[in-house]
Design brief:
With 298 residues, this protein is mostly beta strands. It is built from 4 helices and 25 strands. It has 2 domains: 151 residues, Cathepsin D, subunit A, domain 1 (Beta Barrel), CATH 2.40.70; 126 residues, Cathepsin D, subunit A, domain 1 (Beta Barrel), CATH 2.40.70.
Length: 298
């Protein structure tokens, strides 16, 4: 699920990148699993630099042998990925069918296309059926992209998103295993246990959302924080929701890492706790969909 924050004054026109995240990272001892982040380079099938725009991850890839084109890496996007309508038009790719997409609040019909290949740093996926939509016309020039790489693009190995080093690594030679010591098991991608102060809940780790955290109203009432201030609207994949802004002391604990004094968004219509890019960009994240495990490292 992608979440974009809209300024109140330009709700009808522009998706913006306005959130600062004044959060203090708490640095406990690194779990043993975090040593995999360093070892993953050995035998990696993919290791490329990335840039960060408003917390989101941007890489360059070739599509059907052409490009390079800018792609976002979005852990909130299911399937192999997405193709922007501009990319489809540029390459003359025909529509292949239709389907439905849900953002947890509403469902919408979407068109699909088939990409013969997507080449990211020499790592090639072939014959990808992906959703196509107009994404980039609503984004500023720095944030525009030609496509999204979704969860399944990295589904058969260990993905290491090293925000401090700005490097994306993918390997099949190493597995994230075990329990505890910072390793989190999930059932539904990528929902993991999150503790906010004394309240234990579940949060969706979403590198495509330009926020720190979004809390449903009932969860915010349980956790407590500063008074909620009006904060404009947030756009989900299919839905626009009203949001408020508040600060929560926390700490927010996710495995072996934590953040305190975090500015968050609150929405009565939001379906779950969302852990967005502004929180995740403080850490290195390891995701192994083979073992259904995740670790975050300071």
């Amino acid at each position: 699920m992608r979440l974009h924050i809209l300024r109140t004054a330009t709700i009808a026109a522009t998706i913006t990148a306005t959130l600062a995240t004044p959060a203090a990272a708490i640095e406990p001892d690194a779990p043993k699993a975090c040593s995999l982040a360093r070892r993953a380079m050995t035998g990696a099938v993919l290791s490329v630099p990335f840039r960060v725009v408003d917390g989101r991850i941007y890489v360059t890839a070739k599509v059907d042998g052409k490009g390079p084109f800018v792609f976002a890496v979005d852990t909130g996007a299911g399937g192999m990925g997405r193709a922007d309508a501009g990319l489809v038009a540029t390459l003359g790719i025909p529509l292949t069918g239709s389907g439905h997409t849900s953002d947890g609040v509403a469902t919408a019909e979407v068109k699909t296309v088939r990409l013969a290949s997507v080449d990211l740093g020499g790592f090639v996926r072939r014959d990808l059926e992906v959703v196509t939509r107009d994404y980039s016309s609503k984004l500023g020039p720095d944030a525009a992209f030609s496509g999204i790489l979704g969860r399944e693009f990295f589904g058969d190995g260990l993905l290491v998103i090293d925000y401090p080093a700005r490097r994306l690594t993918f390997t099949r030679a190493t597995t994230l295993s075990g329990e505890g010591s910072g390793v989190l098991r999930y059932e539904r991608a990528f929902r993991v246990p999150v503790k906010i102060g004394d309240v234990l809940t579940e949060g969706n780790l979403d590198t495509g959302a330009n926020v720190s955290f979004v809390l449903p109203g009932p969860l915010f009432d349980r956790v407590g924080g500063t008074a909620i201030r009006a904060a404009g609207e947030g756009k989900l994949t299919n839905t626009v929701v009203s949001t408020g802004r508040a600060t929560i002391k926390g700490p927010f604990r996710i495995g072996a890492v934590a953040l305190s004094d975090v500015e968050v968004r609150v929405s009565d219509r939001y379906p779950e706790l969302l852990v967005g890019a502004h929180a995740l960009q403080h850490f290195t994240m390891l995701i192994d969909q083979r073992s259904r495990r995740i670790a975050l490292c300071s």
